Amino acid sequence: MRLAIGSAVAVFGLLFSASIPAATPLATNGLIITVPVRLKEAKVVFNLDHLAFEGDEPTGLQFLRVMIRRFRIDGTKAQIVAIFHGDAGYMLLDDATYDSVRNWRQGNPYRGQIAKLIRAGVDIEECGETMAYNHWQNVELLPGVKVNTGANFRIIQLVQEGFVQLQP
């Protein structure tokens, strides 16, 4: 099963409104949810292969935080895997490697967010093909990051296991 949504705004709205009771106006703008969604279980794989930002914030990381919060509020039993590859692969590098690759001097700015996601139970994976292409080694990744054989193969595997793919 594949979920294809063309707009980042639509996905954010879907995730934000997932458990708001029907015909309940939101305090911020009077929006009324007429199709409330509450999930008992969810298996989601985030395909994070390209750079997409909401201002300076990576869209995928923002969506992960929103989803985790909503699942926690709703009591949803969830499995979430975030797979970084291609242009977004550098986001999982340790400080020294990040600085070298990105010509930067302040370390990986995503390190804290990635650590929080891992603590929240998200499996964070880096693509082995992306690592080989860039000559990166496992020791150059943030703590807790796993390495898969290849992102596309892993996504196929997870979809065949019933995960829904999101690609923010």
How many H/I helical runs?
6
Strand order of the largest sheet: 8-7-6-3-9
Order of helices and strands: HEEEEEHEHHEHEHE
Beta-strand percentage? 15-25%
Which architecture does the CATH hierarchy give at level 2? 3-Layer(aba) Sandwich
**Main sheet properties:** 5 strands, parallel
Taking all residues together, what is the mean pLDDT?
Answer: 88
Tell me the number of strands.
9
Rg is 17 Å
Which regions have little confidence, pLDDT < 50, spanning 5+ residues?
1-23
Content-based structural category: alpha/beta
Outline type:
globular
**Fold-level CATH name:** Hypothetical Protein Ychn, Chain: A
CATH superfamily: DsrEFH-like
**CATH class descriptor name:** Alpha Beta
Helix amount, in percent?
A: 25-40%
For the termini, the CA-CA separation is 16 Å
**Total domain units:** 1
Question: In summary, what is this structure?
Answer:
The chain is of the alpha/beta class. Helices cover 35% and strands 21% of the residues. The protein has a single domain, classed as DsrEFH-like (Hypothetical Protein Ychn, Chain: A, 3-Layer(aba) Sandwich).
